[in-house]
Design goal:
Strand order of the largest sheet: 1-4-5-6-7-8-9-10
Helix content: 40-55%
Keywords: Amino-acid biosynthesis, Aromatic amino acid biosynthesis, Decarboxylase, Lyase, Tryptophan biosynthesis
CATH architecture: Alpha-Beta Barrel
Strand content: 15-25%
CATH class: Alpha Beta
Pfam families: IGPS
GO biological process, one term: L-tryptophan biosynthetic process
Distance between the termini: 38 Å
Bound molecules: the ligand O=C(O)c1ccccc1NCC(=O)[C@H](O)[C@H](O)COP(=O)(O)O
Oligomer: single chain
Catalytic activity: 1-(2-carboxyphenylamino)-1-deoxy-D-ribulose 5-phosphate + H(+) = (1S,2R)-1-C-(indol-3-yl)glycerol 3-phosphate + CO2 + H2O
EC number: 4.1.1.48
Largest sheet: 8 strands, parallel, barrel
Length: about 270
């Protein structure tokens, strides 16, 4: 039986095929050329980490397959503004509509109003989507190693960099980590959530972090809820975090971010 990740990828293939009927790569290149220059996503995180500070990629997400609706009252621009006030280093915006109730428009709207670098959080399987991401204004894309062959991983990574974007390359186990480390990816996301079973454990970050040398930056993703979680990950020498649900469930997500980072969330 297929798992959720397989289903998402199957749906994505249909979406991409339909998208290609509407916009050619040449169209997307023209639209991308009208976008403002990509904001340095990697550099924003690196600057924080080099200073000895913590970098948070705060996620704008209405729903997910594992949690259903996370936030009914969903205004992506207001949430992003709140994250800016709360000290986020970068933003992550879900653009997948079928499984996360996201939208491509959310990314463009957020990026127009808030000056932080923005990750397009979606499921990349085809070069067409990389051009589309830049046309939408993305500063960084997510590449999930589990969804891609080695050849495609390298092709999409190189294409994103050619277009001036950064890449967050996501892994969940040792084998995926070895595949990511064979590429030039500078930003390695360790997803604490198994995307096939939804089981979440911070020990995934604890175990895999040891495989990455200091030339790359590790981002711990998913299942970060308390200030103790942050402290635990910092003790593993991880200083960048991608956080969604635990912020999105609060009325004022930026205030919750600030509390989380200052030891006030139990
Ligand atoms: O979260 C899911 O249910 C999910 C299912 C299938 C593919 C991806 C999925 N989530 C993406 C993420 O990993 C999270 O949005 C991200 O890391 C933030 O996690 P959290 O802080 O736990 O919301």
């Amino acid at each position: 039986m297929s798992n959720v990740l397989d289903q998402i990828v199957a749906t994505k293939k249909q979406e991409v095929a339909a998208g290609k009927q509407l916009h050619s790569i040449s169209d997307l290149r023209t639209i991308a050329a009208q976008q403002t220059t990509p904001r340095g996503f990697f550099h924003a995180i690196e600057n924080q980490v080099v200073k000895g500070d913590t970098a948070v990629i705060a996620e704008v997400k209405k729903a997910s397959p594992s949690k259903g609706i996370i936030r009914e009252d969903f205004n992506p621009v207001e949430i992003a503004q709140s994250y800016l006030m709360g000290g986020a280093t970068c933003l992550s915006v879900l653009t997948d509509s079928n499984y996360f109730q996201g939208s491509d428009d959310y990314l463009s709207q957020v990026r127009e109003v808030v000056g932080l670098p923005v990750l397009r959080k979606d499921f990349m399987i085809d070069p067409w989507q990389i051009f589309q991401s830049r046309a939408l204004g993305a500063d960084c894309i997510l590449l999930i190693v589990a969804c891609l062959t080695d050849e495609l991983l390298i092709e999409l990574n190189d294409l994103a960099m050619d277009l001036g974007m950064d890449v967050l390359m996501e892994v969940h186990d040792e084998e995926e980590m070895n595949r990511a480390l064979a590429t030039s990816a500078q930003l390695i996301g360790i997803n604490n959530r198994n995307l096939k079973t939804f089981e979440t454990s911070l020990s995934t970050s604890q175990n895999l972090r040891k495989m990455v040398d200091e030339k790359r930056i590790v981002v711990s993703e998913s299942g970060i809820h308390t200030s103790e979680d942050i402290k635990f990950l910092q003790q593993q020498d991880i200083h960048s975090f991608l956080i969604g649900e635990s912020l999105m469930r609060h009325n004022n997500p930026g205030e919750q971010l600030q509390k989380l980072m200052t030891g006030q969330v139990e």
